[in-house]
Amino acid sequence: MIPPTPDKPTSPPRVFTIAMIGGALAVAFEAYGTLTAMPDAAQELGRLDLYAWAFTAFVIAQVLAIVLAGRLVDRIGPVIPLAVGVLIFTLGLLGGGLSINMPMLLAFRALQGFGGGALNLAFMVVVAQAYGKAERAWMMSILSFCWMFPSFVGPPVSAWITTTWSWHWVFLAIVPLLLIVGVLGWRPLAGMQRLHHEPVKTSNPVPIWAAIAAASGTALLQLAGQRLDRFALGMAAVGLVVLLTSLPRLMPPGFMRLRRGLSSVMWARALAAGAYFAGESFIPVMLTQLYGFSLRGAGFFLALGATGWTLGSLVQAWSGLKMRRDEIVHAGAACLTLSTAMMTACTWLVLPWPIFAAGFVILGLGMGLLVSSTSLINMQLSEARLIGRNTSSLQVGEGLGNALVTGLAGTVFAGLLDKVSTAVTFGPIYALCTVASVLALLMALRIGPVRNESSGVG
Q1: Which of 413, 436, 435, 438 lies closest to 424 in space, CA to CA?
Q2: Using alpha carbons only, how large is the chain's radius of gyration in Å?
Q3: Domain count, the chain
Q4: How far is CA 13 from each of CA 17, 130, 187, 291, 357, rounded to the nearest angstrom?
Q5: Which of 78, 97, 131, 437 is in Cβ range 3.0-4.6 Å of 125 for a Cys bridge?
Q6: Domain assignment present for 412
Q7: Is 457 left (phi over 0), alpha (psi -120 to 50) or beta?
Q8: Would you say 398 and 269 are in contact if contact means Cβ atoms under 8 Å apart?
Q9: Would you say residue 427 lies in a domain?
């Protein structure tokens, strides 16, 4: 594999950066559009109890794709996996938009996740290869802005499309944008592919069987939680054993022993992702049921988290921030802990929604600090020949953390739905997010000193 670029590489063509930004925008529009439209889709298809599966099916398939793409990136470079990921993601959007029942929608959500996993992994390696050390942090900030803008426009537009026409069009409307980005970015990416002359054999490649096992184990755990019958205990035990067997092969050495350095980075990222995405996934349905928001109002609300995320990403790239990279991760995890505690109090006690909104902004701020910084730490601590492998591990960890915490939250939701008060339904979900946030903070404190190359500290 081409190693990460030196301090001052040849600047990529402007059209290259435009294509990268356009791709990030398309994926972000899909994410926020789906998040807004999914409560209506689940209600219309008559399976609100499967609501969490719309997100975990995506993430479980994403985990498998990340590993496969990581292997391919190490062998043939990131361009072909990126192109294939875009194609599969687009097919998933088409199928999702044409779905007529919940199982069909979940199947195509999984296909979207598979394409999205390959796309995201290759995308991050492209950033590592095409941009120098000083440029990477700002590229992360630009990409974070690409998530903020759709957070303002995507949810209200998605709500309008859903209420005016149908949730089906939320999926279908993204397809033309992806096609345009593909045409625009193909030539510069093809030029980059020609620079990849020989395959690189890593000393410890991620085994494909481990990815399949991790995805299967995660799915079995959620199925067990969804069933809650006499077969559930055995299913959960099998899922846990399979997951624990596969994790050491997917992660850096010392992951299961909570070793300092890269292993702690992986743990912090996984737990933080679980806390954030589980909390965010249930916001639209929580706001409509607990606070009486309209679907459009809930869509606007989602912009708060993305605003905080973008602010955090900008702060972490600021050259005047005199903190080491690991200290920035500590700050991000502390923000997650504070915010999820606030959100838990709001749902249990039905406090005024502006308090919940403030917590959601802080939640996004913490993720902006933590996600960008853990990605940069991964690039700094990884050997050049292992950048694809370790980026794969980082994203697999994020996906598994997301799927496990969101799946557990979905189990709580399905078990309590229509059986207890709305506050009692959502309170435990955000308490679970708080536990994940505290664990993320504890793991962040174990990373160890890492230099901040943006400000020269450390």
Answers
A1: 413
A2: 20
A3: 1
A4: 7, 10, 10, 48, 40
A5: 78
A6: yes
A7: beta
A8: yes
A9: yes
Residue with tokens 């435009």: 18
Asked, for residue 4, whether it belongs to a domain, the answer is: no
Planar angle of CA 383, 310, 163, nearest 5 degrees: 120
Q: What is the CATH number of the domain that holds 225?
A: 1.20.1250.20
* Tokens read off for 119: 């796309």
Report whether 123 contacts 104 (CB < 8 A).
no
Torsion of CA 157, 165, 57, 53, to 10 degrees: 100
Query: pLDDT tens digits, the chain, 458 residues: what are they?
Result: 334 444 444 455 566 677 777 777 777 778 777 878 888 888 888 887 788 888 888 888 888 887 788 778 777 777 788 888 888 999 999 999 999 998 899 999 999 989 888 887 777 777 777 666 666 666 766 776 776 677 777 777 888 888 888 888 988 888 888 888 777 777 767 666 665 545 555 556 667 888 888 888 888 887 887 776 778 888 888 989 999 998 888 888 888 988 998 999 999 999 999 999 999 989 988 998 889 888 778 877 887 887 898 889 888 888 888 899 999 999 999 999 999 999 999 999 989 999 999 999 999 999 999 998 998 898 888 877 777 678 778 888 888 898 889 888 988 887 887 777 777 889 999 999 999 999 999 999 999 998 888 777 87
For helices 175-194 and 102-130, the axis angle rounded to 10 degrees is: 40
Query: Smallest Cα–Cα separation from 335: which of 351, 357, 312?
Result: 312
pTM: 0.78
User: What residues contact 135, with CB distance under 8 A and at least 6 apart?
Assistant: none
Quote the DSSP letter at residue 196.
-
Whether residue 142 lies inside any domain: the answer is yes
Where in the sequence is the domain holding 123, given as residue range(s)? 14-194+204-444
Give the rounded distance of the alpha carbon of 301 from its chain centre: 19
Residue with tokens 């909570």, as numbered in its chain: 258
